[in-house]
Design goal:
MetI-like fold, mainly alpha
Length: 319
Amino acid sequence: MARYLLSRLAALLGIVFVITVACFLLIHLLPGDPSQSILGFSWTPAAGRAYDRAHGFTGPLVSQYWYWMRHVLVGNLGTSVSGQSVTAVIGSSYKVDLELVLYSQVLAFMFSIPLSVYAARRPGGKMDQSATQVTFAFYCLPAFILVVWFAQFFTVSNHIFPGPGTPAFPSGVGFFQELWQNLQVMFLPSLILAIGTTAVYYRLLRGEMAQTLQEEFITVARSKGLSNNRILWRHALRPSSIPLLTSTGNNVALLITGLFIVELKFDLPGVGWDLVEGIPQKDYLLVQGIALVTAITVVIVNFAIDIITTFVDPRIARA
């Protein structure tokens, strides 16, 4: 187990190194002088030289990379065109993305796991067929369509949930009121993100559960007189959850890259919002910082999933 974890950690560090190199080269792939691209109309030869010296854009690429990495390791990602620190901009927005991802994953697990477990009891039954058809329909609906429908029905027409522009993190109204408003504001965007994820998780877990319930150890458990619920939840779910856990890491990456659609529609100031605003403004350091932080987040999430999967099924470490 320890050797497996060390090998995964070494792979994590190697991938992070490749990510930092790729993000560093984003600026240097811009046409012309990086300082000219970043400063835009305010660029002059003197200003460009001063900017290059201040930000380490001098000397060989290797020395420039290490100069940049020394600043990254202490949390300095540069300065946005707005004059704010890139770290501060991402830090204030990143909590929105993290909550959307976590909230949507909790909802997806709440819907998909019980549905998969009970549908797998009788493959081809009415519940199995109904759940398969409904989840397939949800899977086919793109997020940008669901955003329009849900926003119109739940916020504009019926006012069930707060509309766009309502602050997700209010201040000065008391802890429980802040928490309640936050959950209300973030529920609908998270639900939209969870719908497609629920369909994927259901199909994976339902198929694995149906196969696991045919295994010999399940037959032995039934012969001992164990209840169906105990067999489903204590004996069949754990070995069936490996593909579900593996898919979670990949799905988080897809969610992070697609968050900006939901954030734009619901006026949530997340990292996706910053990215959409930063690109037309040629805020290259902000774009670079967002690419670095989100890529490393995806790698760390997948590493955590690997660790969890290993504890769920220790045979993976011995493979």
